[in-house]
Specification:
The complex is a heterodimer of chains A (168) and B (321). Chain A has 168 residues and is α+β, with helices and mostly antiparallel strands. Chain A has helices at residues 16-25, 36-41, 51-66, 145-154, 156-161, 164-167; strands at residues 6-14, 71-79, 87-101, 104-115, 118-130. In chain A, 45% of the residues are buried. The radius of gyration of chain B is 27 Å and the shape is elongated. The chains are: A alpha+beta (168), B alpha+beta (321). The interface between A and B is large, with 55 and 50 residues.
């Protein structure tokens, strides 16, 4: 993890299902996130993704990359072009700063998500990645062995950055 | 357009007064942090991070705000200040809302079983801003989320409350068939009830001090000249002239269709009142124009005194113009 390092991009197909599921999972029942007819009456061409879903996707993008031991400290985002159904958003990240400490490295990552009509989101995420030696001491914050299994199958990058089980 | 700027400034001043006021005080999350909501969130986000499952699961930190949401049944513990602020913006035509910024700091992880409480403050209300979406105001709130006494995280949230920009054909066609909202009704209280009772009977009543006989309008509990509290009324003859006027172009208020003239009418009896001038286009209202009282019915419960431009004089002015 070095300043200037680019994270691999993450493509998010903005489906109607994602917009609605994200809104409801975040308990946001604003009609513009699920009712296309009402959204149009309010001057929007269609329903659009709510900010909580964008926030969740940005968080996921970072922890997908840095692995399940990574601890999110701060997520700050600003929205621009809306995410309408049928579009695709591509999240890209660049490590801007890294502060090494005894427990691990804390990185500030600049994140940009662009869709077909422009820049949907710009933001910065601060994330701490425990150093390998410290992982066992933070075992309370990482999944137990019983649940570590699926991580290898579903979250590839975690193997590289957080061999949680193996380090113990 | 100086009058519009004054109106904006007035609204801006009223909005600024909400800065620093509480938006929520010791509000409680509707549900404790729980595994099913975490799972639904992860399914929606496509997030397979194993940290969010199993016996030692934490909630995804970015769910912070979700635990504070009112959901379909609405917010509890929200202060009246926040609702008042949103209502004031609605009434000024800023009926649409979009979230623009979210800044969250995570102090300690939330785990299933945690019961959260939150306090929020209205941090700032911006000046009037024109954006691609429309013109409106940015409202920033800051929320502290706690589990017991311990701070779990902070959440700063900015919304834009705005009047949608016009000119989107699709949007206009969609909205066209909808009836405009009803005209706002007057607030009738003890001090002005007699006036509105008169209007219902199609009589325009002017208050008169029983001590010094000074006429006054609008209605007040006491005489501004001598301070005497007793009063009676005289019925206006219904004649008067335009003392001054403004033409409202912007912002558009629901139920009103700009541009329209708002006139200060000087009644023959000498008092002045704000009303509409009818029977003449908004851009032909003039200071000194003679007018005559009429009562206009807006809906089943709303009758208002308005003033019709006197035809003879309009015709004369039309010729000389």
């Amino acid at each position: 993890m070095k300043p200037g390092e680019q994270l691999p991009p993450l493509e998010i197909p903005v489906t109607r299902t994602l917009v609605v599921a994200g809104a409801i999972a975040s308990r946001d029942y604003q009609d513009v996130h699920h009712d296309a007819e009402t959204a149009r009456q309010k001057g929007s061409p269609d329903i659009f993704m709510n900010i909580l879903t964008t926030n969740g996707l940005v968080g996921r993008y970072i922890t997908d990359h840095f692995g399940p031991t990574a601890v999110l400290r701060r997520v700050a985002i600003r929205l621009g072009a809306p995410n309408y159904p049928g579009d695709t958003m591509v999240l890209r990240g660049t490590v801007e700063e890294v502060a090494e400490a005894s427990g691990g490295a804390t990185a500030t990552v600049r994140v940009i998500g662009e869709n077909g009509i422009g820049r949907h989101v710009t933001g910065t995420v601060t994330v701490t990645v425990p150093s390998e030696a410290d992982v066992p001491s933070e075992a309370a914050d990482v999944p137990s062995e019983a649940t570590a299994g699926p991580s290898e199958a579903t979250a590839g990058p975690s193997e590289a950055t957080a061999p949680a089980g193996g380090a113990a | 357009m100086a009058h519009e700027r004054r109106a904006d400034d007035e609204l801006g001043r009223r909005l600024k007064a909400y800065e620093g006021q509480a938006a929520a005080v010791s509000a409680a999350g509707k549900d404790p942090v729980n595994a099913p909501m975490i799972r639904h969130w992860c399914e929606a986000m496509g997030d397979t991070n194993p940290a969010y499952t199993g016996p030692d699961a934490i909630a995804p930190p970015t769910m912070l705000q979700a635990w504070t949401m009112g959901g379909l049944s609405g917010h509890t513990g929200r202060s009246s200040a926040y609702d008042e602020l949103l209502t004031l913006l609605d009434e000024s035509g800023c009926t649409s809302v979009v979230a623009t910024d979210c800044e969250q700091e995570y102090v300690r992880p939330l785990r299933p079983g945690d019961e959260i409480t939150f306090d929020a403050v209205i941090e700032s209300v911006s000046d009037r801003k024109t954006t691609k979406l429309g013109t409106g105001y940015f409202v920033t709130t800051r929320m502290d989320i706690r589990v017991g006494p311990a701070l779990a995280g902070t959440h700063r949230f900015r919304i834009l409350k705005y009047a949608p920009a016009r000119g989107k054909e699709g949007a206009r066609q969609e909205t066209a068939p909808h009836k405009s909202p009803p005209r706002p009704h007057p607030v009738v209280n003890r001090d002005n009830a007699g006036f509105w009772e008169g209007v219902r009977e199609r009589r325009l009543l002017i208050q008169r001090c029983t001590a010094c006989s000074t006429l006054r309008h609008p209605w007040l509990p006491g005489c501004a000249t001598c301070g005497h509290p007793e009063w009676d009324t005289v019925e206006a003859s219904g004649t008067g002239e335009v003392y001054s006027y403004v033409v409202m172009h912007h912002p558009p208020f629901p139920a009103f269709d700009p541009p329209y003239a708002v006139a200060l009418i000087e009644l023959t009896e000498g008092v002045r009142m704000i009303s509409n001038v009818i029977g003449v286009p908004y851009d032909e209202v003039r200071i000194g124009m003679p007018v005559r009282l009429e009562f206009q019915v807006y809906d089943e419960e709303l009758v208002l005194p308005v003033f019709r431009a006197e035809e003879s004089r309009v015709a004369v002015e039309g010729r000389t113009a």
